[in-house]
Structures are given as C-alpha cells and as structure tokens.
Specification:
Elements lengths: L9 E3 L3 H20 L14 H18 L4 E3 L1 H17 L2 H17 L1
Helix pairs in contact: 1-2, 1-3, 1-4, 3-4
Length: about 110
C-alpha cells in the first residue's frame, strides 16, 4: 500500500545552509561527471549508459528544483538520489559542511 505522506512527493524543509550543502553536492557530482573521459578518439564509441544518463538528467532536474523558490518535493527516486549524492559528498566535504550534510541525510532517511 502506498504511503499517503508521499502521494505528492516528500517535502524537504531545507534552510539556507542545507540548501547550500545539497547544491554543493549536486555541483560536485555534475563536475565529476563532466570530467570523466568520454573515450579515446580512435576507439569505437562506448555503449550508451542509460542509467548514468538518467542520473544526470535527474540531478539537473533536482538542481533546477533546488534553485526554484518553491518547496522541494521529491518522489522516492529523488530521495534516493539525494541520499546517494550527499553520501558521496560527505566523504570529501569541507569540515564546515559535514554536520549539515549528516542532518539532511538523516531527514532523507526518515522520509524513505
């Protein structure tokens, strides 16, 4: 049975600091993706990784939603993406961002 709390998406009430950390995690992810080699010019093209392309699109949509003035509403896939992005970011995050990152991760886990 579906959870009625999530019919229209889970709402994350993020303050400025939490939004900043999620924004930094998104940009970190997108920068790493942009820096990945796309293959050698002489080699045959690699098969399209549809899951990665989908993740990139979802990350860009999340970035747009975060930069919008509307409350952030995420479906289960969005919550999972935020959890993954923040978990990866936490490993190398500046000290000033770590507590905030953990706090948002706890909120996301509660929603999941």
């Amino acid at each position: 049975m579906a959870d009625p709390r999530h019919d229209d998406g889970a709402r994350l009430d993020l303050g400025d600091e939490e939004q900043w950390v999620l924004h930094a995690a998104l940009l970190d992810y997108l920068d790493r993706r942009a820096d990945e080699p796309s293959g050698d010019a002489g080699s045959s093209p690699a098969p399209l990784d549809r899951e990665t392309d989908t993740d990139d699109e979802a990350a860009l949509e999340l970035l747009d939603a975060l930069e919008d003035d509307e409350p952030l509403r995420l479906d289960r896939g969005g919550l999972l993406l935020v959890r993954e992005l923040l978990s990866e970011y936490l490993a190398g995050a500046p000290l000033r961002d770590r507590a905030t990152c953990r706090s948002v991760l706890a909120d996301v886990r509660d929603e999941l």
